[in-house]
Amino acid sequence: MAETIGSEYFDRLAKTVVDCDKNECIRLINEGLAKGMDPLEAIEKGLGKGIIKVGDDFGEGSCFLPELIGAADVMKEGVAILDEKIRAEGKTRRSLGKVVIGTVKGDIHDIGKSVVAAVLQANGYDVVDLGIDVEADRFVKAVTEHNADCVGMSSLLTLAIQQMGTVIEHLRQAKLRDKVKVMVGGAPVTQEFADEIGADAFGYDAADAVRKMETLLGDR
Ligand code: B1M
Questions:
Q1: Structural domains counted in the chain
Q2: Model confidence over 89-105: pLDDT tens digits?
Q3: Pocket of ligand 1, beta carbon within 6 A
């Protein structure tokens, strides 16, 4: 039976990311999973909080790139374990649609995109993850190749989000824009920006991405 996992546990998990303590992170995750912890909650309330703190410190200049990379490494390792659990929980569901997802060209951040991909998959969508630094034409090619229903684009860099509009333009040129829905997300992305570039939806976080995907593809 699932035991209650309290905020103190999530704080400890967040601290392992801040401290770049991979062993303790894995130990705590396994302990939480054994107690029936929700893996998405562990990402959002634990690991995610830790990496955001490191990012803020980096932004303020009180933490430097090696620490940021070390913390991201711990986060990635933890997310990989939790992803596997999330995907396993969604394994038996029928497909609600096919989504090709990637981080746009110029951006190598992959943690948030991978979380969204895992959560969509767990909720019944077929997900093709194109990875990071994805050129506009690779998105377009993947839509045809996989007969996708939706293109999902992620970016964390203010300088790279304009690429999302470029991808939409390339979809239009390939006469695919009417055939696929487009969802965008990532920290610098807003609903206003999504409207401006002509995306169909903006996902604030992984749970919101699932809700919006249901609205986009629900009537299929
Ligand atoms: Co970078 N980085 N980073 N970084 N990094 C940020 C984003 C930054 C805000 C840090 C800061 O300055 N405070 C800043 C961007 C500033 C800006 O442009 N607005 C920044 C910078 C500047 C950089 C470099 C340029 C640094 C440098 O080299 N000088 C460089 C980028 C190089 C490049 O891409 N070309 C860089 C590199 C890195 C690392 C490699 C060290 C590492 C990434 C490792 C990896 O991904 N494998 C890294 C990290 C870890 C971060 C922070 C700390 C954390 C990002 C993260 O993983 N968050 C970040 C600071 C921050 O976010 N506060 C920062 C956790 C993740 C779960 O959340 O990705 O937001 P997030 O995803 C969420 C939602 O946004 C949403 O759902 C997800 C789950 O809830 N979402 C979607 C995301 N995509 C979605 C798609 C959807 C729907 C929802 O639909 C399709």
A1: 2
A2: 765 556 789 999 999 99
A3: 48, 51-52, 54-56, 58-59, 68-69, 72, 76, 101, 106-113, 115-116, 152-154, 156-159, 183-188, 203, 205-206, 209
